[in-house]
Amino acid sequence: MAGTAPGTDQPGGAAETADVVVVGFGIAGGCAAVEAAAAGASVVVLERSGTAGGTSALAGGHFYLGGGTVVQRATGHADSPDEMYAYLMAVTPDPEPAKIRAYADGSAEHCDWLESLGFQFERSYYPEKAVIQPGTQGLMYTGNEKVWPFRERAVPAPRGHKVPVPGDTGGARLVTDLLVQRAAELGVSVRYETAATALVQAGDTVTGVRWRSGAETRWTGAGSVILAAGGFVMNTQMVAEHVPSLAAGTFVLGTSFDDGTGIRLGLAAGAQALHLDQAFLTAPFYPPGRLLTGIIVNRGGRRFVAEDSYHSRTSAFVLEQPGSTAYLIVDSEHMQHPEMPLVPFVDGFETIAEMAAALGIPAGNLAATLTAYNSHAACGEDPEFGKHPDWLEPQDAGPWAVFDLSLGKALYAGFTLGGLRCNLDGQVQRPDGSVIAGLYAAGACAANIAQDSKGYSSGTQLGEGSFFGRRAGRHAALAARRG
Ligand SMILES: Cc1cc2nc3c(=O)[nH]c(=O)nc-3n(C[C@H](O)[C@H](O)[C@H](O)COP(=O)(O)OP(=O)(O)OC[C@H]3O[C@@H](n4cnc5c(N)ncnc54)[C@H](O)[C@@H]3O)c2cc1C
What pTM was estimated for this model as a whole? Predict the structure, then answer.
């Protein structure tokens, strides 16, 4: 059990000791704390805010889960750990096979564990192309599973499990609230309004966390420390240094405590950070799905991405184009306005020549692109980008509508993806791969599966944060018992 250490009455002395100290009570910290306590460890959570939840409590509530979950089975969607593994290996730029294997193999059980906290994903499927289910439907496609070339690498399956809360934000709060309840039942002690400020070390081993609460500055001794303090999207200095794309007129998603403290604490202890230059950055133009039948061209009038890609993949390709400039073009048969007003309508044009002139696209290029696209689409083919036949419809009925996807015109929003390097059990690693004794990381301050915008699937952050948070909690508890 957590106990009071000798010397607590000394200024700066240890306020208490615990087998496991968790920094931050979002999805990752909550899962780590609950699993560590369930494994018999004494657990103290330090939470800087007055409530638990962090950025997780803002999240829409997608958990990326598969391999034959109870929801997939109930809605008639075949999936297997091998197909989920193959898909995640294909979309992840620098995959860590052992982590992806564990995540795919453990995903169905993890879904059951999440539900055992006290809620159920609805046993229903939302078939539309959307950013998130508008209601409480339990399952939809939230990645590039049906997008070429990924549909050839793994049998597609929907894996976006949504917590049964309508709307596009706040769903995951239901889960973090349940984690708070479970943590209390298991005797976890949560210190609110208590900010971790430094790690305490004995030689190379992490032995505690220094913290500040109001005017009080103390430390808590720990068998192991699990950093679960979120990402760094609100740290302007870190963003400018590592992900300037997020600083360039984009809307950052998170809470003010996403200031990279967890990552910085790990770095100060000798850890390596990975993928700090990567962010999830997106300006979705769908729903409605009908807009996916259109074409997206750069300012040279060329297509550069399959338009049916998951929205953050499309956005990543847009940002790579000259001037980060791109336009979505749909004809009068397919024109609808985006449901979310993130991508501005430029105008309607009677002729392709007028449209090209207005957009500054070289004469002839746009006409050639449309002609080629239309003739192939009429045959249900897209030899250039492999767009799925479901979305292949000629765009030949003028006038044409144009939407501006360019950076600075469309509203891009995002958060960081990089974090501390850690192994399968969340143990934080140095650049040479050795682990820092006593130190773990999980969630947005750790680097795991979600590595870039092109490969991101909605639900990966909550999915991996909860999954690897649990693993870190179990491993830290075991280490404490051995220690
Ligand atoms: C609007 C929005 C929608 C999203 N939707 C989804 C979605 O549907 N699915 C998905 O997978 N991802 C989604 N994301 C991303 C996802 O929410 C986050 O990546 C994820 O919640 C991070 O979880 P975490 O536990 O690592 O961090 P957090 O949930 O942010 O928890 C970190 C906690 O650490 C605390 N903390 C910070 N510093 C300290 C300190 N020094 N000492 C003590 N405590 C500290 C914070 O107060 C916070 O409570 C969304 C994000 C946003 C903003």
Answer: 0.95
